[in-house]
Amino acid sequence: MSTVPTWVQLVYLGCAVAFILALKGLAGPRTARAGNLLGAAAAAVACAVPFLHLDLDHVGLILGAVALGSLVGAVGARRVQMTQMPQMVALFNGVGGGAAALVALLELEHLVEDGAPTFYLVATAFTILVGSVSFSGSVVTFAKLQELMTSRPVTFPGLPVVFGLAAVAALAVGVVLSTASGASVWLGVGLALLGLAVGVLLVLPVGGADVPIVISLLNAFTGLTVAAGGYVLQNVVLLVAGTLVGASGTFLTLLMAGAMGRSVSNILFGALKGGSTLGAGEASDRPVRSAGPEDVAILLGYADSVLVVPGYGLAVAQAQHTLRELVEVLQARGTRVAYAIHPVAGRMPGHMNVLLAEAQVPYEQLREMDDVNGEFKQTDVVLVVGANDVVNPAARTSPGAPIYGMPILDVDEARQVVFLKRSMRPGFAGIENELLFDPKTTLLFGDAKATLTKLLGATKAL
């Protein structure tokens, strides 16, 4: 018989329903803001309820920790740049996994003293291990994306053996910890340390292009960890919220891997086999056709239809507002213009949609890859701004390329292509883009914002 008051159970049920509705709201750009607010409100209510029905110790310390965490989170979220969103997600995700592991470690002492059933110990060992993996792995992903360390795969002789031994040792300790006779707090600490090591060794071999996918996978890990923690603490709302995060993170990971034309195992372990997770390579010195803003403005001025392909370079340059102005000028001249969005444009799904929404670009102008790919053949000019791998024909034509099989935007089928690029360095995949050397391609070199500003001025002057 549960000792949780009925009103508390009803409030938790309401919070769980709100979480589900929040996820549904987050599925579309028009409802994402409302969904986010609903989920945050439900989380705040769920955090407040224990203060109302439990006889808590150290309330002052708890409230101080909540206040400090809220302050750090609010300041961090307000100051983070749009291009740094994946790093922020990685950090928040890691903190969640680490917190769940610490809570499980604290509960382990009580479970051992009370002689808890085996399944509770299994759930506790799972929470400690997976939460530790998620924490340390997320810290490494943050360091890679923030360029605090190399974004290229990090490997060393014997890495597969070391990783395998660490994983087997962690599983063995977890099994022992799950038995009533073997459970102890110190064994739990050992399991946490092994989990930290496994997390680091798991993410080190992953290249920069694949890090966002690993962040999503670790997010799923954290969700499952929180769900297991909810079972240990007999907290329904934690169980439901963790399950939702785990399930959605798993689906997102599979969708992102599918959009890259890769399997999750290849992303995680490809570098160990000398395979496909690569970082940035060297700039090419092959000749290309380049032009100035005035020449490109004339090209756009004569076009009846233009498709814009935004990428991470646009976000880095914060050029979304200037790009929107350019599109408005072209539309005022009678040109049909739309944005072609690759599923992983930027660094995470939805990243480019949020960036363009911030610049007040109407949702109706955003076209998904499957919807727009058939229109490139009839398009006069494609303007590629800061994108590379997602328009590289090698994904279709070069079986040995690391991105081979990845669905791409069929920009090479358009009549004319204009690339806005800072340099001839390849994209995250580290390979040349043959489209840059195509006779119908023109390159406009420079920072995206500065170049678009000049192009906007030249277009207005026509």
Question: Would you write up a description of this structure?
Answer:
With 462 residues, the chain is of the alpha/beta class. It folds into three domains: 1-79; 86-272, no CATH class; 293-461, TPP-binding domain (Rossmann fold). It is 58% helix and 7% strand. The chain has 17 helices and six strands. The chain has helices at residues 6-26, 32-53, 59-79, 85-114, 118-145, 159-177, 185-203, 211-233, 236-259, 264-269, 293-301, 312-317, 320-332, 351-358, 369-372, 394-397, 448-460; strands spanning 305-310, 336-341, 366-368, 381-385, 416-421, 441-445. The protein has a six-stranded parallel sheet with strand order 3-2-1-4-5-6. Helix 16 (394-397) links the parallel strand 4 (381-385) and strand 5 (416-421). Helix 1 (6-26) packs antiparallel against helix 2 (32-53), helix 4 runs antiparallel to helix 5 (118-145) and helix 5 (118-145) packs antiparallel against helix 6. The chain is globular. It starts with 5 loop residues before the first helix and ends with a helix. The relative contact order is 0.10. Residues 275-280 have low confidence and may be disordered.
